[in-house]
Design brief:
This protein has helices at about 15-20, 45-55, 100-120, 140-160, 165-175, 195-205, 275-280, 325-345, 385-400, 410-415, 425-440; strands at about 1-5, 35-40, 60-65, 80, 130, 135-140, 165, 180-185, 190, 210, 220-225, 225-230, 235-245, 260-270, 285-290, 295-300, 310-320, 350-360, 370-375, 375-380. It contains 11 helices and 20 strands. The strands form 3 sheets. Strands 1, 2, 3, 10, 11, 12, 13, 19 and 20 form a 9-stranded mixed sheet that branches. It has an 8-stranded mixed sheet with strand order 7-8-6-15-16-17-14-18. It has a 3-stranded antiparallel sheet with strand order 4-9-5. It has a single domain, classed as FAD/NAD(P)-binding domain (3-Layer(bba) Sandwich). It is an alpha+beta fold and about 450 residues long. The protein starts with a strand and ends with a helix. The structure holds flavin-adenine dinucleotide.
């Protein structure tokens, strides 16, 4: 038996969920259940796997078991950039691993976006939650501009559309005089991530998938050809299981010392009133990623997405214990306030309504863990910080593998190497956090 050594602990509210109308979570599992496929985790990976399975074989009985409520985990705690292009967070300027690898990854990312777009259509998901508006890499310094130029050259070599913006154009979009230039790319979809995840879950339920929220899987056990999943109030017997619980894959003893548990932090303002909106100016919706991957992401959303608000995302910490502390969140929230005030001095007095942390799972060599771990037990984990697309893809790939469908998506992940072993804690923890601090300091104006 594999017992879950840890279950998710969320720090701070999932703001994207909190700003939407309240919803009742589906009932936790109460009793015993037998299904064809059980999926552990109801984020991008788990819900995408469930949809893919049902699309490929509508006769399958599929259950998703989610430890918390839908959109309360990282899938409802991100910045909502569903990015089509290479976006290598370990590089200096996002360029990836060379032209052909980047072309392959871009095609896969676009297939994830197409998959999500089909779900938006099939389940009549609010278009404000899936806005194909593109994004801007903002630059505030000459170093940032050079990073954008180098990334733009890479994109042009890939044959990808991109457009340089000057300071005036940046101000017209964002209302901020902070940015001296920017690089616009059209293919990113801007999600209201909680809106998308909730509605995807609701669509799956209408399609016949059972989604049990507040149902942590505490243990996995083999019983003959089946798997038995233990939850607080019942057991699920399943012919096959997909672990779509991202970093908590390690909590069941898999990929030990190969997964990097990184927390990112973000804050969201209160709703901006009329006076603040007129002081702010700019457009009602936009998304700015930093020209340096370790800089600050900013996003403006509007009424249809949960109110006129600004989201600030920066700060990262490596936490092998998988729990972000309140003190760490408080520190990050102070940085958010400062970054917000730097960019929007005219509305620097606007309070933050929410600050939160969210759990990413990276691997040193940037690979996912998408494979058959043991007979009948599959994984769709390790988002590498880009889970709106990457976890959608691993979810699709795990479903394909489970049903023995030979797809390009599954082939891509199956061809990846094992996640590289990490140096033992506490060296890894100290080293990684110092590295983050240095990179964040270097990117402090971006
Ligand atoms: C502040 C922030 C900003 C980000 N911005 C972006 C962005 O702009 N674009 C982007 O692509 N990515 C972004 N990300 C990353 C993105 O949120 C993740 O990559 C994505 O959520 C991963 O999806 P997932 O389904 O793999 O994992 P998760 O969303 O973590 O889902 C896994 C689920 O498994 C559940 N679970 C775990 N253990 C168990 C168990 N034992 N039993 C049952 N359920 C369990 C968890 O509760 C969780 O809901 C950001 C993340 C943060 C924190």
């Amino acid at each position: 038996m594999r017992k879950a050594e840890r279950l998710p602990v969320q720090r701070g509210p999932a703001a994207w969920n909190a700003i939407l109308p309240a919803r009742a979570a589906s009932a936790p599992l109460d009793g015993n259940l037998r299904v064809d496929v059980a999926i552990v985790g109801g984020g991008f990976a788990g819900l995408s796997a469930a949809r893919r399975l049902r699309l490929l074989d509508p006769t399958l009985t599929v259950t998703v078991l989610e430890a918390g409520a839908l959109a309360e985990g990282a899938s409802g705690r991100n910045s909502g950039f569903m990015i089509d292009l290479p976006h290598d967070l370990q590089s200096d300027d996002y360029a990836g691993k060379g032209l052909s690898a980047d072309q392959e990854m871009t095609a896969l990312n676009r297939s994830a976006i197409a998959f999500a777009r089909d779900a938006v259509e099939d389940y009549a998901i609010d278009p404000a939650y899936f806005d194909p508006a593109g994004k801007i890499n903002g630059a505030a310094t000459e170093t940032g501009r050079k990073l954008n130029v180098s990334y733009a050259e890479h994109l042009t070599a890939l044959g990808e559309a991109n457009e340089m913006l000057d300071a005036k154009a940046m101000q017209a979009v964002t209302g901020s005089r902070h940015y001296t230039s920017g690089l616009y790319t059209p293919g990113t979809v801007m999600l209201q991530p909680a809106g998308y995840i909730r509605a995807l879950g609701a669509g799956l339920v209408r399609d016949g998938v059972r989604v049990c929220e507040n149902t942590p899987v505490q243990a996995l056990d083999k019983a003959g050809p089946d798997w038995v999943l233990t939850t607080p109030k019942g057991k699920v017997t399943a012919a096959k299981v997909i672990l779509a619980n991202n970093g908590h894959l390690e909590s069941f003893g898999f990929a030990k010392r190969r997964l990097m548990h990184v927390f990112l932090y973000a804050s969201m303002t209160v709703e901006l009133d009329k006076a603040a909106l007129s002081r702010l100016g700019g457009q009602p919706r936009w998304g700015v990623t930093p020209s340096d991957p370790m800089g600050t992401t900013m996003r403006r959303i509007d009424t249809a997405q949960g109110g006129n608000r600004i989201v600030t995302r920066t700060c990262a910490s490596y936490l092998p214990g998988m729990v972000a502390s309140q003190a760490g969140l408080d520190r990050a929230a102070k940085v958010h306030r400062r970054k917000f005030a730097d960019r929007f001095p005219e509305i620097a007095d606007i309070p933050m309504a929410y600050s939160w942390a969210g759990h990413l799972c990276l691997t040193w060599n940037g690979v996912a863990v998408m494979r058959e771990l043991e007979p009948g037990l599959f994984s769709a984990c390790a988002d590498n910080g880009l889970g709106t697309v990457r976890s959608t893809l691993t979810g699709i790939a795990a479903a394909d593998l489970l049903l023995d469908r030979h797809s390009a998506t599954a082939a891509h992940f199956l061809a990846e190497a094992e996640p590289q072993k990490l140096v033992p804690s506490p060296f890894a923890e100290i080293g990684a956090n110092l590295y983050f601090q240095w990179k964040e300091w270097r990117a402090r104006d971006e």
